[in-house]
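hiii, so i know i said id send this last week but things got crazy w the move. better late than never?? heres the sequnce for the chain we talked about at the cafe, plus the structure i predicted for it. fair warning i was half asleep when i ran it
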Amino acid sequence: MTFERFSLKFLLLWLLLIVNCSLSLLTLTMRQRSCTYLDDDYPIEAPIDHLDWVAMTMFEGTHFQLNASDHVSDKEWRTIYSGPYTLHLGSEKRIFLIALYHETHCLRAMEYVFLHPESSAYTPQHIQHCLNYLRQHFLCVADDQLEEDDFLHWDLRTGSVYVDDKLCRGWDRVSTAASDDLRRFRDLRGRVQLNNLI
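okay and structure toks below
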């Protein structure tokens, strides 16, 4: 009887292992499936090598101030939206916007309108789109990391205040992939133009 129980447990363990391996292979195959990038035939995420998880120390402080006369803060805000912002994918080199850059564009647009309400650089519809886009993004991410609820007591005039460490996806690979893609696209476009001249 003990041998039968052992055999049954052993058989069940092997069966679960086989099912797990099969599901892993199926998931991997689905991720690697070839897309045409035409119409709706494209993956959910950009074809970028695995994004590492990185620890990011969060600070509240004197950077990224909302102050129109502060040139340092203006420069900081401009750096969060520095491109390239797109990928050219598939045989037709279809252009896709990278969500990370769409999000930072929206932050920059709202910061700009907050400081320059008289400007016509962004329409109210554009800002409404950005607010809605970021709202949906925050709901989609559903970040459940716990944070201390004492930010109203911080004196930010004295400098940066440590908030917490967060676990984030390493955005550096997204930036590298977009830069590499732009360089390849420009090289290809240059070769096509050169071939048309010959």
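btw Residues 129 and 135 are 10 Å apart (CA to CA). thought thatd interest u
miss u guys!!
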